[in-house]
Amino acid sequence: MAFSKFRPIFLGVAFLVSACSFTEETLWPSLTGEDPAGADQQAQAPAPAPAPQQAAQPPLGTTDFQPDGVTPGSPTGTFVGKKVVELREELTRLQEAVGAHNGQLQNLRTRIVEDSQRYHGTTAAINARLQVGTTPGNPILVQQFNAAQADLDRLGGDITEMNNLATAVASDSTMSSFLSESARAAFNISGAVDEDHRQLAILEDEVNRTVVLIDRLLKEVTDDVRRQTNYVATERSNLNLLSAGIKTGEIYGASLTNRALASAGSRAGQVGALGATAQRPLVVIRFDRANVPYQQALYNAVSKVLERRPDAVFDLVAVAPSAGGPAKVALNANKARRSAEGVLRSLIEMGLPPTRVAVSARTSAQARTNEVHLYLR
């Protein structure tokens, strides 16, 4: 029957959610072709998995950094007067550069918003299709995924341009500091007339205002680069998980790494304990048939753990039956190891760093088929 084909994963999800309390009476499920509880129960079709919430693009700065301009002056014929003219010309060139960099910044902000909206629109369409169910490797979703990846690459290119802009603005800051020091030093040059000092005072004020403007511009650009760089890194992890969802035709959620970081931030300053014993597996996957659909239940189980313990580390154990002769045991151990490697690849695709998982192998007299156990260390 078509329903019985999906019964294992339905039961797996139900038991996984209830087992997140880690009580002594509750056991984690076995993902197999039979009822993990051993009872003949009528399974009910689960509600569709909720679509993962789109990560909001971090805000960009909104300031328009337009210089006020330079007040013109008349030559006095003195050495200091000539110095004032030179400084005024340098300040004019500097403000022109600041104005150009400001225009570049505003264009980049507009482009980043457009690329981000296009990216989120494409990923939202993919998640909506996965939520209602689709075939593994749906070519339409693959095409949409490639478009989303291209949009994210464009976002990365925009951020690279903004980082280059920050370097250019830093050079403006160096030049503005030089002009400020030169204007102050010019007051100490002998041979000046009163008009020289009047024009020099005006120039010094305009230089100082330009210094403040450039410092604010540099800070805002730097903040934009930092926030957007972290945002793109997060979305690359989520996009990798979305690729895994397209491959299996299932909807997951945010990358496990990003979920762990979010949980760590929300639980900062809190102290709690996770009451799980070292001997109890979080998940048992029995590979008693081909293509056991364990990915969704595995993701849900690990997500629940990371919500409560963001720094969790896991042990992935390949378990082979010890029954039979040495050749049979060796063959089963090799198959179990390959199954564990497949589960590890799934966890990595879901965003869990490889350094968070240690893989080992053992045999068991209780195992009737090859199994993979996931433990919380």
Question: In words, what does this structure look like?
Answer:
α1 (2-18) packs parallel to α6, α2 runs parallel beside α4 and α5 runs parallel beside α6. The protein is of the alpha/beta class and 377 residues long. It has two domains: 2-49 and 262-376, 60s Ribosomal Protein L30, Chain: A (2-Layer Sandwich); 79-248, Methane Monooxygenase Hydroxylase, Chain G, domain 1, CATH 1.20.58. It is elongated. A five-stranded mixed sheet has the order 1-2-5-3-4. Residues 1-49 and 268-278 have low confidence and may be disordered. It has helices at residues 2-18, 79-132, 139-186, 194-248, 256-266, 295-308, 326-349; strands at residues 30-31, 283-286, 314-321, 357-364, 371-376. Helices cover 59% and strands 7% of the residues. The chain has seven helices and five strands; from the N terminus they run αβααααβαβαββ.
Question: Layout of SSEs?
Answer:
Layout: H1 2-18, E1 30-31, H2 79-132, H3 139-186, H4 194-248, H5 256-266, E2 283-286, H6 295-308, E3 314-321, H7 326-349, E4 357-364, E5 371-376
Parallel strand pairs: 1-2, 3-4
Antiparallel strand pairs: 2-5, 3-5
Q: How would you sum up the global shape?
A: elongated
What share of the residues lie within helices? Answer: 55-70%
The stretches of 5 or more residues where confidence is low (pLDDT under 50) are 1-49, 268-278
The share of residues in extended strands comes to: 5-15%
